[in-house]
Design brief:
The complex is a heterodimer. By secondary structure, chain A is α/β, with parallel strands linked by helices. Chain A has two domains: 265 residues, 3-Layer(aba) Sandwich (Aldehyde Dehydrogenase, Chain A, domain 1), CATH 3.40.605; 189 residues, 3-Layer(aba) Sandwich (Aldehyde Dehydrogenase, Chain A, domain 2). Chain A contains 15 helices and 23 strands. In chain A, strands 15-16-17-14-13-19-20 form a seven-stranded mixed beta sheet, sandwiched between helices. In chain A, strands 10-9-8-11-12-22 form a six-stranded mixed beta sheet, with helices on both faces. Chain A has a three-stranded mixed beta sheet with strand order 1-5-4, with no helix packed on it. A four-stranded mixed beta sheet of chain B has the order 3-2-5-4. A three-stranded mixed beta sheet of chain B has the order 1-6-7. In chain B, strand 4 and strand 5 form a beta hairpin. Chain B is globular and about 40 Å long. Chain B starts with 8 loop residues before the first strand and ends with a helix. The chains are: A alpha/beta, B alpha/beta. Chains A and B meet through helix 7, helix 8 and helix 11 of A and helix 2, strand 6 and strand 7 of B. Chain A: GO terms for molecular function: aldehyde dehydrogenase (NAD+) activity. Chain A: It catalyses: an aldehyde + NAD(+) + H2O = a carboxylate + NADH + 2 H(+). Chain A: Pfam families: Aldedh.
Chain lengths: 507, 131
């Protein structure tokens, strides 16, 4: 067991600066209006740094820097861009512990997740897109003996990226790596709930990227995110968040006629078929872990498996084992490597989760475990902790239909295969899903019939690069985490060439 | 379609005070209830008309706030309303940090939707339920 010292205490592997400005044109510049906001850690609720409160003027400055860098960066060879991405990856890897502790302190997640998942996945993501851009090929079509259509991948130019607060560094990596690989320059706005850890990363990699290629403007959504999303100098917007803002971003994009990619969340079903319980073996244990996966990252995951559908013949025993497993989840100080569940990212997030627990109870759902705020005592009393909570209820209830974004699981039963699919698809969203069975045919059929962009089959919450991630239905547009994301950051140039010596014959 | 004034959606006094402040700063405002991840499942407050509503939306009602001249319309996507129609909403405000492009974030607070089940009588009288 390791308990990392809190940032600011002696022996901490990372230290935050007392204040962070915007990163524009390769250097830190103060906000034009001179305002800052306080950034608390959700671990204790105490402020640990202050952050530039950006406005439209700062966004404009950053877009101009990105426009200035666009031509040169777009002309670099894939080899050069891949080298930059690989250097970023190597640097993050060398400082993995410091970056992981910074992420945990800013977001509240347990450091064991940041050490084992967030940061290693971010590292790998840069390496993946370094490789993908090296391997990318254009296409040519031989239209007839003398006519050839060449198709070149060209960058879009300047892209705006708005990053969520649940995986601040990993989601930034998901957006930065393909954009930089594609040859775009970036203006990135971190979430105002978790604005600090990206600056620890920038402190490590700023020298690796030419000035103006990556620009970071901090601030509130309405003051900095909105001016970025509607800026006439950008060629694309990428956003991860919720549906209303997603629609607003599409609305702004329509004014500029630019594309968007959106990841807007889900209400992911996790289906356990009866044969899971045929044996009490390693697979059963794995499925039980799959049931408990709703608590990963405190449930603050767009693909949180927050609806468990259990076949009726095994319902009681599987659920009892699952509840017992969830009760063993260790909640504690996020910087303790034994801690499995940490703090919710912000106070308003905590309040929202508690309001959903209230409506779940009022709708008649039955609380099997948890159901309240957790007070962990000492300095953690000021932090934002929720007990892992399991509700038993009906899929029509609001706790089965809305993304609570907390460690709250809603469980129901189904009788036959068709019922499982019907319940699973009775949702506005279609981002993730889980299917657990020992029968390959059932797994295949279910995975194909569930309307979701990612169906984990006998696993959950794995996010390897090279497996496409994105939503069906209202969960969004686009596929991240895969080389196909390059298409969302590039446009196609067709050069249509005639090698024929003679006139076409029209005039 | 007219919003059934006050019957489906209400506002707490704290949220009303914040609406007075936001209206002073930004002019008339509107709400659109969000769904989905991160800051989803929360009401978003925009300058009136900023968010384009259409056939895909339901007008839940208009909040009448003392000291705010124009009623504050509350909207939700029609597909989401299917799952919410049996619940009464109260817009509250809590200390917090940011959410999408909602106007109140820089004030250090966040609007929050609290819900309760509609009574049988409320459902009977509700214009949207009859639709």
């Amino acid at each position: 067991m390791t308990r990392y010292a809190s940032p600011g205490e002696p022996g901490s592997v990372v230290s935050f600066q007392p204040r962070y400005d915007h990163f524009i044109g390769g250097e830190y510049v103060p906000p034009i209006k001179g305002r800052y906001f306080e950034n608390p850690t959700p671990v204790t609720g105490e402020t640990f740094t202050e952050i530039a409160r950006g406005t439209a003027e700062d966004v404009d400055h950053a877009v101009r820097a990105a426009v200035g860098a666009e031509a040169a960066w777009g002309r670099t060879s894939p080899v050069e861009r891949a080298e930059v991405l690989n250097r970023i990856a190597d640097t993050l890897e060398r400082h993995l512990e410091a970056v992981a502790v910074a992420e945990s302190w800013d977001n509240g997640k347990p450091v064991r997740e940041a050490l084992a998942a967030d940061i290693p996945l971010a590292v790998d993501h840069f390496r993946y897109f370094a490789a993908a851009i090296r391997a990318q090929e254009g296409a040519l079509s031989q239209l007839d003996a003398d006519t050839v259509a060449y198709h070149f991948h060209e960058p879009l130019g300047v892209v705006g990226q708005i990053i969520p607060w649940n995986f601040p560094i990993l989601m930034a990596a998901w957006k930065l790596a393909p954009a930089l690989a594609a040859g775009d320059t970036v203006v990135l706005k971190p979430a105002e709930q978790t604005p600090a850890s990206i600056h620890v990363v920038l402190g490590l990699i700023a020298d690796l990227v030419p000035p103006g290629v990556v620009n970071v403007v901090n601030g509130f959504g309405v003051e900095a995110g909105k001016p970025l999303a509607r800026h006439r100098g950008i060629q694309k917007v990428a956003f991860t968040g919720e549906t209303t803002t997603g629609r607003l971003i599409m609305q702004y994009a329509s004014e500029n006629i630019i594309p968007v990619t959106l990841e807007l969340g889900g209400k992911s079903p996790n289906i356990f078929f009866r044969d899971v319980a045929d044996l009490r073996d390693a697979f059963y244990d794995k499925a039980q872990e799959g049931f408990a996966m709703f608590a990963l990252n405190q449930g603050e995951v767009c693909t949180c498996p927050s609806r468990a559908l259990i076949q009726s013949s095994i319902y009681s025993s599987f659920l009892a084992d699952g509840v017992a497993r969830v009760k063993r989840i260790r909640q504690g100080h996020p910087l303790d490597t034994e801690t499995m569940i940490g703090a919710q990212a912000s106070n308003d997030q905590l309040e929202k989760i508690l309001s959903y627990i209230d409506i779940g109870k009022e709708e008649g759902a039955h609380v099997l475990t948890g159901g309240a705020r957790a007070d962990l005592g000492g300095e953690l009393s000021g932090g934002y902790y929720v007990e892992p909570t399991i509700f038993e209820g009906d899929n029509k209830m609001r706790i089965f239909q809305e993304e609570i974004f907390g460690p709250v699981l809603s469980v129901t039963k189904f009788d036959e295969y068709a019922d499982a699919i019907k319940i699973a698809n009775d949702s506005l969203y279609g981002l993730g899903a889980g299917v657990w069975t020992r029968d390959g045919t059932t797994a295949y059929r279910a995975a194909r019939e569930i309307q979701a962009g990612r169906v984990w089959t006998n696993c959950y919450h794995a996010y390897p690069a090279h497996a496409a991630f994105g939503g069906y239905k209202q969960s969004g547009i686009g596929r991240e985490n895969h080389k196909m994301m390059l298409d969302h950051y590039q446009q196609t140039k067709n050069v249509l060439v005639s090698y024929a010596p003679n006139a076409q014959g029209f005039f | 379609m007219s919003g059934a004034r006050g019957s489906r959606v209400e506002v707490t006094e704290a949220a009303a005070a914040m609406l007075r402040r936001l209206t002073d700063l930004h002019g008339p405002v509107m709400f659109h209830q969000s769904g989905g991840c991160c800051d989803g499942s929360a009401p978003m407050c925009y300058p009136a008309g900023e968010f384009r509503t259409g056939d895909a939306d339901v007008h839940l009602g208009d909040l009448v706030v003392e000291g705010v001249q124009a009623p504050v319309p509350v909207w939700m996507s029609a597909s989401q309303f299917v799952y919410w129609r049996h619940t009464h909403l109260t817009i509250d405000v809590v200390p917090g940090r940011g959410a999408g492009f909602s106007l109140e974030a820089p004030e250090g607070v966040r609007f929050l939707t609290r819900s309760r089940l509609m009574t049988d009588r409320e459902l009977e009288e509700d214009a949207l339920t009859k639709r």
